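Give me the fold.
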Amino acid sequence: MKVGVDIQNYLPHRAPMLMVDLILDIDTNFVETIFLIKEDNIFVDKNIFTEAGLIENTAQTCSSIVGKKYFFDEDGTENENVNVIGFISALKNVKIHSLPKVGDSITTKATLVSKFVGDNYTLCTMSCQSFLEEKILLECEINLFIQKTISAAT
């Protein structure tokens, strides 16, 4: 297991769409991340982190498990110049219990339920929960599609 890893090593997202700060724990079937909600976040409305922000945070947390397949070799060596695209293909059983505020740090945990790996793409289903300390904010099941893209040589 790796601890305290910069999420940007696992995702193509960058500010202002990056909704995870650090990976606290990751292995092949589980990931836990943390995210500090700042005032200038694009998903903040009247000092509240919106539902769309929680869902994007969850999707990015989940993507890190699948994304590591494309960004790192089996020995842990980073692959350079890798491009991926990804999107949420389904959200199921979404329950939003509460919304966090600016200044809150949320923890999101995701467990791999199923995965199908093709030549240059992966489909997966993840079970997810987001927390503010011990208080549950969101729970859902999410399906993701992630594909390695071929970039033209320059």
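The first helix runs from residue 51 to 71.
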